[in-house]
Amino acid sequence: MDVKSKGLVNSLLPRLAVAQYVPTPILAKAGPLLASLKIGPPAMQAALSGLFSPQAGEATVPFLKMISTWVLNARRAAKQGKKVFLVPFNFPCEIIHAFEGAEPLTSEVLSTFGVVALPEQGEEYWDMAMALGLPDHMCSANTIELGSMLGSADFKPQAIISSAPGGCDVNSKIHEFVAHYLDIPHFFLQKPPDDGGRGRAQYNVYMRGLIRRLEDFIGEKLSEDRLRSVLTKANRCTELYYELFDLQKAVPCPVPNIFSLFLYGVRFTMWGTDEGIKALEAMVKVSRERLARKAYPAEKEIARCVWAYTSYYYDLYGLFGWMEEKGYSHLGDGLDLFFPRMVDTSSMDSMIEGLAESAWNMPMTRQVGAESMSRSWTEDVIWAARELNADCVIYCGHHSCKQTWSVVSILREELMDRLGMPILILQGDSWIKRMTPMSVLQEEIDEFVKNVVAKKSTPKRSLKKRRQKRMEEMDS
Amino acid sequence: MEDVLRQSAVLQNELVKGWKEKGGKVVGYTCTATPVEVLEAAGLLPYRIRALGSSETEMADARLSRFNCSFCRSCLQLGLNGSYDFLDGMIETNGCDHLRGMIENWERAKGFGFFHYLKVPHVVDEDSIPYFVEELRIYKRAVEDHFDQAISDEALWDRIQARDRIGGKLRAIYDLREREKPGITGAEALSVFLWATAVPSQALEDALDSIIEQRKDHRIENCRARLLLGGAATDEVDFVREIESLGALVVTDALCYGARAFMPRIESSPGGDPFKAMAESYFEKLLCPRMFDDFASRRDFVFKAVKRAKVDGVVLVHNKFCDVHGVDNVALRMALEKAGVPVLQLEKEYGAKADLGRMRTRFQAFLERIEGD
Amino acid sequence: MYAGIDIGSLTAEALLIGDGGIVGHEIMSVLPNPVDSAREVMGRLLKGKGLDWKDIEYSVSTGYGREKIQKEGLAQENLSEISCHGFGAFNLDRQVRTIVDIGGQDAKVIKVDGKGKLENFVMNDKCAAGTGHFLEAMSRALDVGLAELGPLALRSKKPLEMSNRCTIYVETEVIHYLQRGAAREDVAAGITQAMAERVVSLAKRVVPQNRVMITGGVAKNEAVKKALERALGMAIVYPGLDPQLIGAYGAAVFARGKGGGS
To answer: What sign results for the dihedral spanned by CA atoms A349, A350, A354, A360?
Structure first.
């Protein structure tokens, strides 16, 4: 262990404290200003320009404040003797928010912020995991943060929850390894790969079993009132999710590209909290205003792209900002496809069933964790591509995503057969810049859009008309 | 013995051919968590998918990617190029992401005469055991329905007992292998186990008896080092042969095509619920890194084998991109090294002859390292 | 007289020792067949010293084709290059416990115990980054001779950061830097830094211990050694012998032990 390295979370703290304590109006001015001055290392410039893009407007600050509250709450909780759970992104964090004595920290989101905000972009923590001999085909999304826990004086959670068994081997295995290595308790929410009623019923059983075990570990009975309060807020988040999704359908897309990341950033950390609601409300507000102003960052919207699984995060400006300037709308990626439902908060039973439903629909779990690895994923991507009036699909080709890599050929065939839509299959590491440079990815996207995506001039239609058309379709 | 070694190196061995000629049906499966008793009780021949070291993946690569395990790509290749056309059905389990992808692409490209997906939970607890027991009943009904053959509890118990006997005989072969002067090499043993997952059980029982008889007085002298081979799903006899060509002997293993497939099995007494008995053997005692919350039992299994077979070193191997073994091998290596057992951890490409040369240098250095310790 | 023959991917080495120490050594580029390489390089050495094959009491082969060389009767025994590098380095400096060996197509980190016996090792022979091949490709991109790359890098005051890992992309990055008018020494220093980081990430797997020695052809590049020291946070010593000869030396010392010499 490198005791000189304070670790990813500890290194993020001063930056998060700035986001937390600097008043919103000042932060809202300072961020874009710093981004425009183009000072500091290129990685920092890309992060600032990506996060504080002019399109994102006033949504960036509430989002950053939400992230900082999330991490700082967990730090505070640990100091107060509460339990901090390390959870993967596909775990519905609202369960932990509903406990008084616990806070969730999501490994993939921490990795992402390490990659976005730290000078070394988290690579030294990846190297710490590699130094233990872990294979280089691990997923950097979680291995960066977990490498930091394994190899530095980083904070250690009191327990780990895995909800990836059934959805992703590599995610499940690295969490298991860390729990074993650090000798901390490990809880599971396994996913039966069974889309039928039996699978769903069993998932409910697993959810109840998990809650029972968490109650024992935290030493606190899950309170019906607290749960209701959290889920009522989660329901508000759900409303905002669909509002944003509807806005995304408009041509040209009024939703800034970076909101794809912001949206699941909320889902994976503070869903069901006031801060989460504030961040989502700001995103909806910005998008609505842009729709009203018919604002679009480029002269023309040239291509509407749905990303099939993840995006690239080591250079936010290089991907999201660059696409925007080119007139390529990023209509969200697979991680945005979690289709939340309104939870019935009338009883404890209905709420727990609602939680199980939410967990079932978390990204990855819902798609490649389904009975068929390809079917549910393909259906979701095709549905999103159709609903969002996309011209093409882009698969990021994150190296370690063995499940999506296993069936991306099926997705490609289905997209072509059913929508006549092309897919660009990229290759790289979504979190580590040294695998495929952003310039290479940009070139491939550019070539693909220019040569393969035959842009049909999409007629502008008002949302009202689109909704009306959908109602008619549903009636028929 | 010679015949078994020869027959284990082909996909459609003579016994499978004979079975088919008599109108018998053969059903493939990929994973040790598949209770073959259900297939046997329906008069079917269970056949475990293997790739026999074939490194050709051209057709498979058009479907799976280069980020998928090369063993699964090799199996898919054989499925796509018609080598497995003798199968009348396939039982899929959610063994790992690569296996799932392999079967899904295979089914899409060619389809199976009969297909059933047996869902195996990843954690053993009071919630998952009843689920898996019911899953086995669903599996039985699917086999009954498709092949129009009722499966009675008595027939299942008969097969469970046969499998217990076979497990006992395979353990006897392990005894030959693990003793001070082994009666069988690691490469031979792996061939026998591979063959054992591809033949009718009566013929298998007879052959195992004969092998045990033939080798009980055989003594392999001058072994340079006694090794345990553990890790990824591998059926590469050449890989074991390469290690042994340097004078070492693989005297025991923790492979899923080897000891892990039958060693942890529970021997049950007939009379109770056969599905519960099978759930216990195939799920509760399943030793595979695709299972969670039970690293300790996998580690203990290796430690026991190290002690039992008095090994000098452990070779842990995984195919590139195999996450479940890739990670588990690190934790196992750490535990073994802490206990003072030398470990060689390797990542390799399945079946690649070029890779064997690279491996050979490491094997040799490892032997030089443990010699004289 | 005891002999060590080491056939690598690019060069072949032969070394002779007697009870008193090194008698002579020879290095040449490899021939297509390792047995021919062995015969040629040892032949040249013997001829230069006025000796004959029959003067060799015991010979050990190592490296690529080591088994074939033994089969052809040019050596009584063969040992892996991993053991030979470890043993050779240790016999040159008894304080050495870790050996970083970077050759043309592979990199190894070897640990030995207080008797020079192989304790642990880790090897990269799949990824070009972190091997001599990488430096060759980069020196071509920089349009300098391989031997000049090190001195050039040492002149840099502000090494550039290579943000990529893959040889192909680093090459593109190098060209990109040059097109933007970056100083060649800074690019060269960035290259050596990238290479060192790759090797150190390998080295960490065996937890390096003092004293560390660098061997192999790449050891001749002092900039790489310095970059390795920085990345490792440990001092690295040179062998008191051409770093390319360590494998052959280890084999020869081993042969002397086996042959009854002292």
So the answer is: positive
Chain C residues close to A436, C-beta within 8 Å? 166, 169
- Peptide bond preceding C151 in cis form (omega within 30 of 0): no
Least confident of A121-130, B107-116, B333-342, C123-132: C123-132
B316 beta partners: B230, B345
According to the model, what pLDDT value does residue C164 have? 80
**CA of A335 to nearest chain B CA: how many angstroms apart?**
19
Interface predicted TM-score (ipTM) of this complex, two decimals = 0.95
Residues of chain C above pLDDT 90, percent: 76
Distance CA B162, CA B274 (A): 13
Strand order in the sheet with A303-307: A328-330, A303-307, A392-395, A423-425
Within 8 A by CB and 6+ apart from B304, the residues are none
Q: Are β-strands C107-112 and C118-124 bridged in parallel, bridged antiparallel, or unpaired? A: antiparallel
pLDDT of C80 strictly over 60:
yes
Do the beta carbons of residue B71 and residue B232 sit within 8 Å? yes
Q: What pTM, to 2 d.p., does this model score?
A: 0.94
B326/A137 Cβ within 8 A: yes
Give the pLDDT band of residue B37 (cuts 50, 70, 90): very high
Considering only CA atoms, which of A49, A15, A91, A124 is closest in space to residue A338?
A91
| Chosen from C121, C122, C258 to mutate, greatest number of chain B CBs within 10 A | C121
pLDDT at B351: 86
Contacts of A127 in chain C (CB under 8 A): 201, 204
pLDDT digits 0-9 by tens, C7-18: 988 899 999 999
**What residues does C63 pair with on adjacent strands?**
C7
pLDDT digits (tens, 9 = 90+) for B184-213: 999 999 999 999 999 999 999 999 999 999
Six token digits for residue A322:
């660059």
Tokens of C260: 């009854």
